[in-house]
């Protein structure tokens, strides 16, 4: 009996493992193909100035479709690209598409800044600064219309290296945001000496703040910190008017979330935001 069960179990485990391997191989294939064809999609989620309700920036978010036609969660294919040593190339393609979009908005008379997520591995890779600059030159985008979103965990890596690259980027006029702020462990004294422009308050705190006093306190504390360091604050994951109202009461200047817009394909972004069609 026990033997039988053991056999069944090992059978179950190896089946699970095989599925995992197949899934990974399939994902790797899809990812390599997308990079070869430069076919990664990028969608844009508006960032709203809470006082004027105007769209002043947009976060670029990468999208990759699996063989079944469903989108694969970005953290999944981004981390695989990191593992396979493909993130530099993938990241450049995403950056290029993002800057190209922002240049087009600018040409249409709407200087909307594009905010691009940067993986820690890409950020620390040899020649990252040159890559960013080459893309800006090729797309003819002003530095002030590009914002790079880095994570708190990146700041904890090679401190001197990271600080140096941040400084070089910032000196050119590129904006620097810290994404998912509050989920990492960056020390305040370190943060203070970094050339950072924006703190993005992690959406988990925004989501939970109505039900959880601690989350509310964290949002208030981050807001106070942002003010004392003269940083712009962006509330992420705003889904209700109440979320917005609380963030505004803490002095948060900008917001991003489903209350305003989901991430949009470029054509929809242009129609809804740039041409201001009254469809939404
Ligand atoms: P993130 O940078 O914090 O991006 C915000 C995520 O929250 C996006 O998920 C967005 O679609 C989602 N979101 C926005 N508003 C709301 C809301 O009101 N409610 C809820 N529940 N969610 C909202 P997405 O696109 O699935 O991306 C997940 C994460 O994957 C990103 O988190 C980022 O860390 C990473 N990622 C996405 N695109 C890229 C990329 O091009 N490069 C890198 N390195 N990472 C990326
Ligand atoms: Mg982000
Ligand atoms: Mg600066
Ligand atoms: Mg975030």
TrEMBL record:
Complete-protein stretch covered: 430 to 709 of 709
- The molecule here is called Response regulator receiver modulated diguanylate cyclase/phosphodiesterase with PAS/PAC sensor(S)
Q: Which residues form the EAL domain?
A: 24-277
Q: Which domain of life is it from?
A: Bacteria
């Amino acid at each position: 009996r026990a033997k039988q069960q053991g056999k069944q179990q090992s059978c179950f485990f190896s089946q699970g493992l095989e599925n995992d391997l197949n899934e990974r191989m399939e994902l790797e294939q899809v990812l390599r193909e997308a990079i070869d064809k430069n076919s990664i999609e990028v969608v844009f989620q508006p960032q709203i100035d809470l006082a004027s309700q105007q769209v002043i920036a947009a976060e670029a978010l990468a999208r990759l479709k699996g063989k079944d036609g469903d989108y694969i969660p970005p953290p999944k294919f981004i981390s695989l690209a990191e593992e396979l040593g493909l993130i530099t190339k993938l990241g450049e393609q995403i950056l290029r598409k993002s800057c190209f979009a922002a240049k087009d908005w600018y040409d249409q008379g709407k200087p909307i800044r594009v905010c691009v997520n940067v993986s820690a591995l890409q950020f620390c890779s040899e020649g990252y600064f040159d890559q960013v600059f080459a893309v800006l030159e090729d797309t003819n985008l002003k530095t002030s219309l590009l914002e790079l979103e880095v994570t708190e965990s990146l700041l904890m890596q090679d401190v001197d290296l990271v600080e140096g690259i941040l400084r070089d980027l910032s000196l050119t006029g590129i904006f620097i945001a810290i994404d998912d702020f509050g989920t990492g462990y960056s020390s305040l004294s370190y943060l203070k000496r970094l050339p950072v422009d924006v703190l993005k308050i992690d959406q988990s705190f925004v989501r939970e703040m109505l039900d959880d006093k601690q989350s509310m306190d964290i949002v208030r504390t981050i807001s106070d910190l942002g003010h004392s360091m003269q940083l712009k604050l962006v509330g992420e994951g705003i889904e209700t008017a109440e979320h917005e109202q609380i963030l505004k009461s803490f002095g948060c200047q900008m917001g991003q979330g489903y209350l305003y817009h989901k991430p949009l394909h470029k054509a929809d972004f242009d129609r809804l935001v740039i041409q201001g069609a009254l469809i939404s």
